[in-house]
Write a structure and sequence with these properties.
This protein has 434 residues and is mainly α. The chain has helices at 27-61, 65-77, 79-92, 94-110, 118-146, 152-172, 185-189, 195-204, 209-216, 227-258, 263-274, 277-290, 294-311, 316-343, 347-377, 382-389, 391-403, 412-415, 423-431. It has a single domain (27-421), classed as Up-down Bundle (Growth Hormone, Chain: A).
């Protein structure tokens, strides 16, 4: 991916004990942020589409829960396509790849609406979803490189809200699936409306200043990826997504088959319990920038998974409340965890490192999906399966607390000393308000 109020007091070192505040952005930063927000919409729509519609497509094609899990896992393995594309962004720039993916993801994803079989549907999404993933990765990288040290996590939280709009459109279109046996295909056709945003990005989005400077200085061969950072972040991604992927894919099936929810009921449940997560995102982004990322993520990520597990074991108001509060906790954790992916690596390797971490998360998701599908087909309850999968986020939280450095209030060049190119002037430029 609630509750009326949630107050958590964190005690951090004095060096990062600052009051949360909305950061001041330059004119360039504001322009880039809203353009990235636009790019989030097609990326998230394409990433969400199969998850939201798989239960209806599977019913049309006569596919079991295990088959759905395998299909979703195969689509996640399509991330291997994204690795060379993401690496290319470290050579030719972020902008060119963003434009390519902003056009390619909606077009290829829309082809799923013409699929004559579940196999072909999976094949189209296995090609289209990696483009959306690369787009998502590059959006985060551009935000990390262009925002100041006091606004990186906050910018990620704003972009997450924009991404939520793309997911909301896919969810809002879900009632179309109730119009007929094959009406789920209309939801795929809607992907083509995002080509308008691709045209805007093509006309307005600039290349990042940091990439231009380091590319011109030809620092590719003099900088390298810290393997220990990449390894620990990959482990966190694997363990965390074991639960997240399975809970997101099977939630609709659970609501429909166990709780007898219609498509409209599912839409209402998801919007009512998921929308308040935006509160967590905004608070999480500010707290991560002002007080630090590490403790915030280590506490709220496992807690959110535990609460969402309760939603698979309860009904009525308890189910709604558990999903609501779990979503807020995950919202609090997301900006802090997401911003780490770009902060810990040098500019000309940042895109590739982020894609490796994304690949690791999808590997974890595949394990969770296949495992959940197998045990659900063996008549284990949803609550039992999700409870075991919750161990993943708990382990991830421990790893974050014990191995991740604190990166709040630190410039990217301070976090990556090998990447220094006139960093003093770069930092001064980024911190000047309009």
């Amino acid at each position: 991916m609630r509750g009326d109020s949630l107050f958590i007091t964190f005690q951090y070192a004095p060096a990062v004990s600052r009051k949360p505040r909305t950061p001041v952005l330059t004119a360039r930063q504001r322009t880039i942020l809203w353009l990235l927000a636009l790019a989030c919409v097609p990326a998230t729509y394409a990433n969400t589409l199969f998850t939201q519609t798989v239960a209806y497509a599977a019913e049309d094609f006569g596919i079991s829960e295990q088959g759905q899990g395998i299909g979703a896992a195969i689509i996640r393995w399509g991330v291997l396509i994204s690795l060379p594309l993401a690496a290319l962004a470290d050579r030719i720039g972020r902008r060119k790849l963003i434009i390519f993916c902003a056009f390619g993801a909606p077009i290829i994803t829309a082809l799923g609406g013409l699929a004559p079989s579940f196999t072909i549907l999976v094949a189209t999404q296995t090609l289209g979803r990696p483009l959306a993933l690369v787009l998502t990765i590059l959006i985060g990288i551009v935000a990390t490189e262009e925002m100041s040290s006091e606004s990186r996590a906050w910018a990620i939280s704003v972009l997450a809200l924009a991404a939520g709009f793309g997911a909301a459109v896919a969810l809002g279109a879900l009632p179309l699936a109730d119009l007929g046996r094959e009406s789920w295909r209309f939801i795929y056709a809607l992907s083509l409306i995002w080509l308008v945003l691709a045209v805007i990005l093509q006309r307005r989005l600039p290349e990042t200043t940091r990439f231009i400077e380091r590319h011109d200085k030809q620092l590719e061969t003099t900088t390298h990826i810290d393997r220990s950072r990449l390894f620990t972040q990959s482990l966190v991604a694997i363990f965390g997504n074991i639960f997240i992927a399975a809970s997101s894919v099977f939630q609709i099936r659970y609501l429909r088959d166990v709780r007898d929810y219609s498509a409209i009921d599912i839409t209402a449940f998801t919007l009512v319990t998921g929308t308040p997560a935006s509160i967590g995102l905004l608070i999480g982004g500010r707290v991560a920038d002002s007080r630090g990322r590490r403790l915030l993520s280590a506490i709220t990520f496992p807690l959110g998974a535990i609460l969402l597990t309760l939603a698979f074991s309860t009904s009525g108001q308890s189910m709604w409340l558990a999903s609501l509060s779990g979503g807020i906790c995950l919202g609090l954790a997301y900006p802090a965890m997401a911003v780490y992916r770009g902060e810990m690596f040098p500019t000309l390797h940042r895109s590739f490192a982020s894609s490796v971490i994304m690949t690791a998360s999808l590997i974890g998701g595949s394990v969770g999906l296949i495992g959940a599908g197998v045990f659900l087909n063996r008549d284990f309850s949803y609550g039992q399966v999700m409870a075991w999968l919750t161990l993943g986020p708990i382990i991830a939280g421990v790893l974050v607390y014990t191995t991740f450095p604190e990166s709040a209030h630190r410039e990217l060049e301070e976090l990556n000393p090998q990447d220094v190119v006139d960093s003093a002037s770069t930092g001064a430029k980024d911190s000047q308000p309009n």
